[in-house]
Each structure stands twice: as structure tokens, then as C-alpha cells.
Amino acid sequence: MTPDEKELLLLEKTALEFARKELAPHRRENDAHPFGPFFSPVLDKAFQLDFFHALPPEEAGGLDQGICAFSVLLESLCREDASLGAILFSNACAQEIMLAAKQAGELKQIAEKFCGVTDCLIAFPAFNNPSEIDHIAQATYKNDGYLISGAVDFLTMGGMARHGLIPARLTHGKTDDFSWFLVDLTDSRVTKSEMILSLGLRGCPAADVVFDHAPARLMGDVGNGAACFKMMSEKMNLAAAAMSCGVMKGSFDEALGYSKNRMQGGKKIIDWTEFQMLLANMALQIEMASLALKSARQKACEKTRGWQNSGLAVAAVIQKEACDVTSAGIQALGGVGYMKDFGQEKRFRDAQQLQALLGLAPLKRINYLRRKMGQRDLSYGKD
Amino acid sequence: MALSKSEQTAWLGQEPKFDDIIQSVTAASKMPKGLIRETQEVAALARKFNHEVVKPMRLELDRKVQENPDYLPHELVKKANEWGLFTLWIPKAFGGKGYNMPSFSFFAEEISSCCTAVANLIGVHYLGVATLMATWNAPVIFRVLNDVLDGEKTGRPCLISLALTEPAAGTDIEDVDLMDKGTISCHAQRVDGGYNVNGEKVFISNGHLSTWHMLFSFAHLEKPSENLVMLAVKTGMKGFSFGRMERKMGQKSCPASELVFRDCHVPDELVCLCPEDAEKLEKGPRKTAMQLIDYIFSASRAAVCAFGAGVARGAYQEALEFASRTNVCGKPLINHEWAQSMLAQMYGNVAVARLAYVESNHANSLRGMYKWLQFKPFFYFLKWMPQKLSRTFIHYLLNRPLGTWMLRKAHCDFQTQDDIDQTSGWASLAKFTGADMGVKNAQMALELMGQAGLRHDHVVEKHLRDARLIQIYEGTNQLNRLNLFKCLIAPSLPPAKMFDE
Fold this sequence. Notes:
heterodimer; A: 383 residues; alpha+beta; 9 strands; B: alpha+beta; 10 strands
């Protein structure tokens, strides 16, 4: 085992311990949001443990742990509950876009200026690829600054974070391409909806946010939004895949544990071969996902040629597999798998929602092929 | 080359027998035309009910139960009662409106395309009715169904639930081969004047909303398969109480309840079927218990398949509507070939699910619960017979021991093992097919809609949560696959044994 591998193993163990201690016991209550309290104390602990600063480089105020370590962290957390992982993921997407836009200083400033988790969080529309959408917010340049108008739907942590990184097109720009803008969400010209009741990841709430000439800072060059998004997603696909992989593993753990105790027809359900086949299929899918993820991580760490597309491939495949595995995880428990007393139904919902990260799932698959063929991604105004 | 009649019969009789692999060909000529008209009537009624009641309520109710898991949708039940939906499929001979039961599946598909929870809320009531009917104990049937009919007149809804599943026995209680090996605990002890019941039932749909509960209990727990006691228990009876309401992922407007029995005395007049009754039937207690379970599920699983077809259709319709109004990558989503292909697949999934429940219902019409009701002379006699005559003549005839004997003879003794296998096997096929199509389409709709599909107000995420339960209730999909093997494959393979690992 290399020192790097040992370090990752240690990180995995620590994150798992955190998840089992802080997330698992309160999974059901945390999932009750927006009808129950938000799990702020856990978020604070995660913040104190520097989970939110794990990915960015030191010049951006981070710990420079790298995408491999970050994906291991998310995978371990998501075994118990994917909501915290999704918050970290969404925030990291914003960080990565700002880094791609060469805004490390801005990131560092946020990290140094604020000490509370919500002040440091950057809300981000993590379930969209702006290149796929025609109607996004508009930015106008006025008096040496930009003003944003329009709406951003489903802004992850939009109702809580102090800052938001949002895509917008310039009203009188030379390009149709969008750009990224950093907005203070506490500004009076920003209106947030109530927390959106979503399918899954309810501990990672989103809100619809409307901007009415809200001041914003351009991140990077005008019209460079799609390029920044692509750079970010190439890296973050690994993290997205890891989250789904973690959810799958959690589902299997619970199914296996249950089957060793539950009786049917006079014996433990694990002793029926039909049930073994159900679990075996789950285990095989997880094994394949883990191997693929490990390989993609390695390629990313070594910057092997084509690592970016490998990340996209594992994300697209593992996210879909996770939907199937978590569904089998419910089935393994029968009626109780559908109930909130166990974690399976939440994992099923979370897995479905994770599949929508960073845009439409079918387009991610098509774009994988297009990139392989050296073509541009399907996107607004390009085809 | 023309085949002689005997040659044709011989070829068609080879496995798989032609009559077994397709029900509709045989059923079509036997189907009364009035049945089609009734089906169209109830489908139209369902669409109107969706438009005026379900659609305006479904999201609000779902949200309310998420906010307060103990919330009960009384306003919805009241509306359904006002619309006459709890008596529509009660046979005319027992005072109901007498619509043909297969038409319920079409009704269920329509309602489920809008909200599966509402379809289940209405469907579970008829599961209770079907269970009651399956005992063919005419006096108890009259007594319980009279309450339902009165409930419609008085505006105080009276629903019937089926209390089957136990805390330690889900699948085990649905097959006699598993019953005796399982941990069944709902005990009905024979006492003077009736039975004393102790035990719990769980996941009972509509439990908290129902007035009557069709209870599966057992006189001797060491051999439940031969000691089935079916009882009608009324809410409020001493020793019977409601436990907790389950916190489900979906179908939130249809509560799932725990029922608790502690020395609950059920008098003789509410005993629907006891081991002594079963002894008198040709098949004996064990086979009768299985026949009864198959009889009920053969009808209900077709309807559950219709829930699947409905939710698959609802998801498809939402995705189609989204694709029509949303631009993706600069052009309408509906004009992307990949999206068209997905939508076509979803359309196909709905059709497959629909065909499955239609076939299952044909099997029931040819060989199961609906056989006599859809025998053309009976069908038209019951359809056009004045209600008054029905209430006097048929009530008089059936409401005495001879009536119960006749009904049991016709429905229990005359049903052959081959009939049971065909109806039960097709029902299982329909059940897991419909359930799978429902989940599949909801997942595809989410893929197609991305972020928009995740929101509660866009309905699709609710369709997925609702659909997922269909793969579990009325026997898990795994059990139904095994039941299909048992009923449609194993009979022609003598070495095949079930649950014998």
C-alpha cells in the first residue's frame, strides 16, 4: 500500500466514523426538513473539521486534499446519509468554478472573512447544466459593476448560504455564452422562495431565487461560463460518482444486516437463494462501481490521458446503478424497506436525485460519446 | 394444409396450452357487450373525479401527511363517498350498483394516473369487499355491505380493510406452503358464542379509515394453513384498537395502520369462515385457505397492476407535457430524438401494463371470481333486474344457509385447480409487470426532466414514491414471480417443488 493509499484509507475510516456517529442516528429527523429543523449542529461540526475546505488549494484558503481524497470523503459520508455530502458537493462545485475562473483570491477572502458555515457556503445550482437551459438570469453592466435580474431555480442551499454563484447571460454582450457571477444572497434585491420540498436530499435544501437588479461580481471572463463548468464537472464527476457509490454501499449494508435476522418460511431470508440472488446482484453492481471509481480516481490523480471522460463515464453509470441498487435495497426489506424507520427508502430517493447532479442524465451519456468522438457537447446555441 | 378438429385440439393442448398463454382470445366472445359500455362509463367517471377532486387535492394532501404523518384524509374519503365510489362495484345482489369488476381496473388506472394513493384508498376498500365476498357467507356479506350502503346514504363513509400482514409474517401469510413454517401469531380462540382474538396486524391500508376489517386469524398457530378463521371486525369493538400509522415513503393519502387485538371477542354472526366450514368444502381446510388467498389476490393483483399502469401513465404524461414546453440545448425537448425514443418507450410501458391487467381480468372472468357474474344470462339478469326485486327475492334466497351453501358450491367447489392456477398465475404476472412499469416510467420521467422532476410541485417525484410501493404490496414482486412459476410453469413439470430449499 502506497502512502497515498494509506492516507485515503485513514480518511475513509474517519469519515465513516463521523457519518455513523453524527449522521446515522438522526437520519430520519434530518430528512424531515423542511418540516423539521435543519441539521445545523452537524454542519457546524463538519465545518470545524474542515470538510468544506478540503478540496481547494491553499492559495484559495483550502487544504488542497485533491479530488481523490474529496471523493473518498463524500463516499464515506453518503453511506449513512447523502445530504451532508450533497451540501459539500454543491459548495465544492462553486469553489471549482471560481478556481477555473481564476478567482482563488476571492475564495480565500470568503474563507478568511467569515467564520460561520453558512457565511462561507456558496449556493450553487448543482442540479443543472446551464448550457442545457435556454432561459437563465440576465446580467447588465452598469456603473462599473454588474446587476443580475431573473430567476435561478433550485439553487442548492440558496435559502441559507450567504453567497451564491449563478449563471447569467449578458443582455448586450457580444456572446450568447453565459458567465458566472458571485452574488450576496442577503442583498435586499434578492428574493428567496421557501425551501423546496424535493424528492430526496432533504437535508440539502434548495430554493428558487429571484434577482431584481442585484449587484454581482463577474467570475472570470465574460462568456466563459460553459468552459468553467466543463472544467469543474470533469473533476466533480468523480465526486458525484463517489456519492452514489456510497449510497449503494449503505443500502447493501442495511439489506444484508436485515436479512440475517428476518425470518421467512421458517428460516432466515438470507438463506433463500432467490434472496441471495437479489443481494448478489447488489453486491456485484457495487463491486463493479467501486472498481470503476477507483480506476477513474487513479487516472484523475495521475492525470492520465482521457481522465476527464472516465470521470463522466463512471458518474453516468454509477448514478444509474445506484437507482437500481437502492431499489433492490428496499425490496430486500419488503414492507419495512418502504417505511421511514429504516434508511432504505431515503437512499432510494437520494440516489434518484443524485442522478440529476450537473444536468440531465441522458445528455451526460450522449456527451460522453460526443467527447469520445472529439465533438462538442450538446448545448444551447451550439447545435 | 387444413387440420382436423381433433388434430387442432391436440396441437393446441400441448404445453404451453394455447388457452393458457392468451386469455383474451377465448374471453372475447363470451364477454357481454354491456360490460364494455360499463367500462367506458366508469373510465369517464374517473376522469371527471380526477379533474374535480383528485387533481386539486393530491399534492396538498401528500404535503400535509409529510408535515404531519398522523393526518388522515377524511375530506377525500367523504368526497369519494359522495360520488358513490364505495358502492359502485358492490354486486347488485347485495344492494350495490353492480358495475362489473374488471371495469374497476380501468377506473383504477385513470385515478392512479393522477394519484396512486387515491386509487389505492378506493381499491383497498374493494379488496376488503372481495375478501368478504370470497368467504361467500351471505348473512355476513349482507350485514357488512349494508353498512357501506348506509354510509353512502348518510354521508358517513363506511370502508372495509383487509387485515392480513403480521409483524413477523408478510410473505409467509400469503401462501400455505410458507404459513406453517412461518411465525404467524394472530390467534383466534374458539369460545362460547364466537372467537377471542389476540395478535397484531401491520401495514393495513386504510386501517384507521375503515369501519370494517376483514381479519385473517388462525385457530391453531402450530398449523395455521388448516385453521384459517376469517372474521369481520368492526371498529370500536371491545379489545380492538389501532396502533401506529406507518411513516411511508409515498401513497401518503392512503394510511397504513397497525391493528391490535387483545381478547377481542368476535361473535358467531361475524365469523365469515372457520375451519369447520372449510371442512365441509370439497378441497378441505388447507386447499381452501390457499384457494381463498388466490381467489382474492387474483382479483386484487389485476387492480394493483392497473395502479402500476396508471402511475406509469401519469409519469409519462408529466414528462410529455414537460418535454413539450421546455427547451433544451436551444430547441424543444420534444424534438430531440433521444427524448422521443424515451417517451415512446414510456408509452409502450403503459400499454404493456394495461394489457397485463386486461389479460388477468379475462382469466378471472373465464375461471375466477367473475365467472358467474359475467355469464351473459346472469350479467343481464342482474343488470336489468329492479333493485326492489333484488332486495327482496335475492336477499331472501341468499340470506339463509342454503344461499351460503349454493354460493360456496359454485365458487369454491366448482373452481378446479387448473382454474386457480390460471387466475392466480396471470394475476401475479400482471402484478409484477404493472408494478415494474410504474417504477420504470417514473424513473424515466425523472431522467428526462432532471432538476424539474425533483420538485414536489411537479408531481413526478410523487409518482415515483407512490409507484415504488406497488412492487411491495399484494405480495412482493419476488413472491409473485415465484407464484407465477408455481401456477403457470410448475404444473406441467412434476419434479418442480416450491419453497423447498
